[in-house]
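Narrative of activities, Objective 1.

The group set out to show that a structural description can be obtained from nothing but a protein's sequence at a throughput compatible with the screening campaign. Below is one input-output pair from the validation batch, recorded exactly as produced.
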Amino acid sequence: MGRKMRRFARVAVICCVCGLCSVMYTFTQIIMSLEPKSRLEGHDKITKQLKRDASLLVPSIPKVETMEGLEQEQRWLQSRFETNKTDVKRSPDKWIHLAVVACGERFEETVTMLKSSILFNVKPIQFHIFAEDELHPKFKNTLNSWPFQQKFHYILYPITFPSENAAEWKKLFKPCASQRLFLPLVLKDVDALLYVDTDILFLRPVDDIWSFFKYFNSTQIAAMAPEHEEPRIGWYNRFARHPYYGSTGVNSGVMLMNMTRIRRKYFKNDMTTARLQWGEMLMPLLKKYKFNITWGDQDLLNIVFYHNPESLFVFPCQWNYRPDHCIYGSNCKESEEEGIFILHGNRGVYHDNKQPAFRAVYEAIHNYTFGDDHFHALLYPLKKELRETTHTYCGKLYKIFLKQLKKSIEGITPNQTQRR
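Output recorded for this entry:
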């Protein structure tokens, strides 16, 4: 009798298991039959959204926390911009805000940068020039003498640091360079800003890099280019004694800043468990890392975005093209295809003979006179000079220095060319 009961129990268990599997299979089939419909509905919604603004719309992107996810997001956004770059709508009724910090012997370099910014711009530009007091009269005399006053305005500011630590901030890396860290606190009424170093030259309308603000997702507050594209020659990944963004760090010589978001954000950090606002974070950050940083405020920015990677938008290397992109062979592939958009002559290459290709571009723009023909007074003389630099690695790539500049000049309407 006991054996029969055990057999009966086993059969009952087997039947129950089979019944449960049958129920689960049926439920799975029902779910699978419904899923394509939901996917199709989602696809239709996205299609309708894209049709609302086919030229420039970037669909909303979910927040991602991993570095791999962030890098994939940046590549996707960059490919969207490259696809639609010819369709960028430039509204002349809105101002571009451009900031620069000039100290010491940087006056001529700064003026040349400002000149390059208005050669091709469409929107008017508001210059925010932070300079030592003795440079203010020189800036006024130069800028007031330029034609096309409707294309730009300027405001001159003194160098401004927190009084209790002013000397320490001013001497950090290059004279006055760390001023950029305090721009969100000084320019309280400015919503968005493009900061550039004095050794920047625009070979494409400033309007185009300004348009990257449209591609920020809800978490991003700033945009910069990578410090290196090739890790084997990267500085941060080989020598840095502090945290840095991504795999090779970022370069702050060209930096878009959503000032409103920067002022509002509470930042993750490694100094306290509490999140800190921008102004609260700067001095503790310097105190903790001042003996471990080499590149001053750029290193501090790398530390900030190491802890807040979701807050940074990364744009491609041709928007911040430096000697490192060519002195060891070409390692900015985007520039090979489309040319250089923004030239960054760091390490003083505009003023020595180490990189004659960079110096040739600087001198061509520096010597150009407003009103002269762009082809005969700028492009053709530059092309001649660049051909004399082919004995250098960067000079062998001289065509990429001309490609976008030629397009920018061709993009000026006949009427504009005649007025200039």
